[in-house]
Amino acid sequence: MKQILEELSTLRGGRPRILLCDDQPINIRLVNALLKGDYEIFMATSGLQAIELSERVTPDLILMDVNMPGLNGYDTCARLKQNTLTLGIPVIFLTGLKSEEDEVKAFEVGGVDFISKPINGTVLKARVLTHLTLKLQSDFYLNIAVTDSLTGLFNRRKFDSELAEKWELCKRSGQAMSLLLIDIDHFKQYNDHYGHQAGDHCLAEVAHTIRSNFHRSYDCVARYGGEEFACILPMTGREQAIRQAQEVCHSVARLHLPHARSDTSAWVSLSIGVATMIAPDHNASPVALLALADKNLYAAKANGRAQVFA
Ligand code: GH3
Ligand code: MG
Ligand code: MG
Ligand code: MG
């Protein structure tokens, strides 16, 4: 058990977090005493408080009472499952209820387990550990599924889904969305001169620097393909997008990564195509936005590289 707990803490990057929700503080204290040695514990005495805490501290597991004044445990769970921030958190019901209908209802509202009181501490700990293991392993693989392993940026798969999702967001609010397509200049010559391994290292460093230019949680920076990157900037107009693209170019130029075979610059440089569209415009779509950014990237190359074209 100790070894599994250590592995989970490594996966989590800290002790796994459990939220205890029960309207009776005495019940919370009892479960807390059982689990606090192994986990970081958060406590809520109402459904609404549990929802608020779940959004804020993203627990890895919730132990939920059913009978509570106000929002009961089932309704609280159903709400957590409708919220993109909290839907992935497994909920175990811990309750005095015992009937078959109550147990079935727990699974219908999205719970992963149902434990009837009186609590057997050993069994509770075993079930908690099993569900935490499943949850943290699933997070681990989900993370791999959206990440480019060389650069740590989002991969193309994630980019495609983010583009569609963020477009819908901007469409609903009638706001502009911008896209940057970024390509390293003369990267084939870089590989030919310095070797493929040095090329990989350069890609990772450039990716990291591009990423460091974006601070809003809803901006998405991805590796689009080989030596190409893409940034989705929701709620961003043309002027701001151009400014950000120029800053990306400057930040990579400032790295002073030598490029002996480039006829553009002594250092590794970028060309960036910028596109901005507003959803209600006819002909505007994620596909059209991508095509325009690509066209502008081509123009940046044709104009002599190491520049932004919008
Ligand atoms: P341009 O300025 O027109 O963009 O020229 P370029 O040489 O950068 O463009 P081209 O598309 O001809 O070559 C891209 C190069 O990027 C070729 C390929 O070997 C390299 N590349 C793509 N992915 C990787 C990778 O993961 N690692 C390394 N080291 N090189 C890669
Ligand atoms: Mg209760
Ligand atoms: Mg390219
Ligand atoms: Mg290139």
Automatic annotation (TrEMBL):
Gene Ontology molecular functions: diguanylate cyclase activity
Domain of life: Bacteria
Enzyme class: transferase
UniProt keyword list: Phosphoprotein
Signal peptide location: none
Modified residues (4-aspartylphosphate): 65
Matches recorded under CDD domains: GGDEF
SMART domains: GGDEF, REC
Gene Ontology biological-process annotations: cell adhesion involved in single-species biofilm formation; negative regulation of bacterial-type flagellum-dependent cell motility; phosphorelay signal transduction system
Enzyme Commission code(s) on record: 2.7.7.65
Ranges of residues in domain GGDEF: 175-310
Domain Response regulatory: 17-132
InterPro entries, sorted: CheY-like_superfamily, Diguanylate_Cyclase, GGDEF_dom, Nucleotide_cyclase, Rev_trsase/Diguanyl_cyclase, Sig_transdc_resp-reg_receiver
GO annotations of cellular component type: plasma membrane
UniProt catalytic activity: 2 GTP = 3',3'-c-di-GMP + 2 diphosphate
NCBIfam families: GGDEF
Protein name according to UniProt: diguanylate cyclase
Species annotation: Herbaspirillum seropedicae (strain SmR1)
